[in-house]
């Protein structure tokens, strides 16, 4: 088989973007937003606009730096050099393997609807979660093509119940249920940043197609297309899904719902409708875990090829998979899960997961600025310098706003987490000088 036969195409790359962005969170988020009122739809629109700007930047970058994996790391390094590139790779890598533990827990939460025993036995629930982590480690060890097949299937299966609720739910829509614009009692300008920040985390993953770029057929065409198409599909699902739920379930009931889409499914199709959506929520988290497991090996491999991560991260098996990087990432995820078995650490675990969001946002900041820098250096502007500069500036401003919205504690401890990488960077530079 030719190398091209082992690579993924547009559909799979798009599934990676959609699958990594749409996790378990969207199945709960409308309930959280409902208590603020329909002003939360403005939050969705604002965040979606920011995500589309970032998608455009990543798409543009993927046509400039072609056939090189690493996405945020590669682009940041191109604009700012080794140190910033390493900082981005370090933070982003940590965010993946910590977030994978959260996804595994979300899968168990979904399964507990069908198997309540998982709620009663921490040992059993953690064992099943570990089983999912290592199952997808095994799947991804077989190659990007195999992982991609799973990603396409799970993306279709997760979209089915959401699209079902959006289309069929529209026939049950009632304006009487639709919440007033602002239910908080606070001013609009005070409430808007809160709802926009809540929707922000649902768009993390916009860069997913750029990370395994070397494993994509015709990357100069398919990576930018997948990034934009995936972001647009996700945006439509998020906004339309929230609108339909607002008109389907009374606000007092919706704001207290533990599974709003499942409740909508029950209104439309009875008990079976509820189970259909609940199953979709599980598949959503499963597909997300598969997609991020792929990236936990791909990103450090790109850094290791530049001698910015230990050499073992670029060691590939016969399927072209960075097998040691994949295993190390899953071992670290397993460690986080085992720590979470202690009830006293649940709150700390939630904080760590939130902390890693910052390390996923920092790359957006540097990539937006690097986009303008690289284009200036190459004297290559897709449209005009002004438009290029404006796009980069908007992406940079949105990333700053998103980081600000993360809260002072998260920003403070997140920066410490990033600064802890400096001794490792110095070690990598020393090793590089000896080669």
TrEMBL record:
The chain crosses the membrane at residues 7-29, 41-66, 87-115, 121-140, 152-175, 187-206, 227-249, 275-299, 320-339, 351-373, 385-404, 410-428. Keywords: Cell membrane, Membrane, Transmembrane, Transmembrane helix. It comes from the Bacteria. It is a multi-pass membrane protein. Pfam families: AA_permease_2. It is found in: Cell membrane. Major component of the acid-resistance (AR) system allowing enteric pathogens to survive the acidic environment in the stomach. Exchanges extracellular arginine for its intracellular decarboxylation product agmatine (Agm) thereby expelling intracellular protons. Probably undergoes several conformational states in order to translocate the substrate across the membrane; keeps the substrate accessible to only 1 side of the membrane at a time by opening and closing 3 membrane-internal gates. Belongs to the amino acid-polyamine-organocation (APC) superfamily. Basic amino acid/polyamine antiporter (APA) (TC 2.A.3.2) family. This is Arginine/agmatine antiporter. The lineage of its organism: Bacteria, Pseudomonadati, Bacteroidota, Flavobacteriia, Flavobacteriales.
């Amino acid at each position: 088989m030719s190398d091209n036969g082992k690579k993924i195409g547009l559909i799979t790359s798009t599934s990676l973007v959609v699958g990594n962005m749409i996790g378990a969170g969207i199945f709960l988020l409308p309930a959280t937003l409902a208590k603020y009122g329909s002003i939360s739809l403005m939050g969705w629109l604002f965040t979606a606009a920011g995500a589309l700007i970032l998608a455009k930047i990543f798409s543009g970058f993927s046509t400039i730096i072609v056939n090189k994996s690493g996405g945020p790391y590669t682009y940041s390094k191109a604009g700012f050099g080794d140190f910033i590139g390493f900082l981005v790779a370090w933070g982003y890598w940590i965010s993946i393997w910590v977030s994978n533990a959260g996804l595994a827990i979300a899968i168990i939460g979904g399964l507990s609807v069908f198997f309540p025993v998982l709620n009663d036995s921490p040992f059993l629930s953690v064992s099943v979660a570990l089983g999912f982590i290592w199952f997808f480690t095994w799947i991804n060890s077989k190659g990007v093509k195999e992982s991609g097949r799973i990603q396409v299937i799970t993306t279709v299966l997760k979209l089915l119940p959401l699209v079902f609720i959006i289309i069929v739910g529209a026939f049950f829509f009632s304006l009487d249920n639709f919440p007033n614009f602002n239910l908080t009692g606070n001013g609009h300008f005070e409430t808007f940043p809160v709802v926009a920040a809540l929707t922000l985390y649902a768009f993390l993953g916009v860069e997913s197609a750029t990370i395994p770029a070397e494993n994509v057929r015709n990357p100069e065409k398919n990576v930018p297309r997948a990034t934009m198409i995936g972001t647009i599909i996700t945006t439509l699902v998020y906004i339309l899904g929230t609108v339909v739920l607002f008109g389907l379930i009374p606000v007092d009931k919706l704001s207290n719902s533990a599974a709003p889409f499942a409740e909508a499914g029950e209104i439309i199709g009875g008990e079976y409708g509820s189970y259909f959506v609940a199953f979709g929520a599980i598949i959503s988290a499963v597909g997300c875990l598969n997609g991020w497991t792929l990236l936990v090996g791909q990103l450090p491999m790109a850094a290791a090829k530049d001698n910015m991560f230990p050499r073992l991260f670029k060691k590939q098996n016969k399927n072209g998979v960075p097998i040691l990087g994949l295993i190390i990432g899953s071992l670290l995820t397993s460690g986080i899960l085992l720590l979470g078995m202690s009830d006293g650490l649940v709150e700390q675990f939630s904080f760590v997961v939130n902390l890693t969001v910052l390390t996923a946002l920092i790359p957006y900041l540097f990539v937006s600025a690097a986009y303008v820098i690289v284009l200036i250096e190459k004297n290559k502007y897709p449209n005009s310098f002004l438009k290029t500069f404006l796009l980069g500036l908007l992406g940079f401003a949105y990333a700053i706003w998103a980081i600000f919205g993360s809260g002072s504690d998260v920003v403070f401890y997140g920066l410490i987490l990033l600064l802890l990488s400096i001794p490792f960077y110095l070690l990598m530079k020393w090793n590089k000088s000896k080669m």
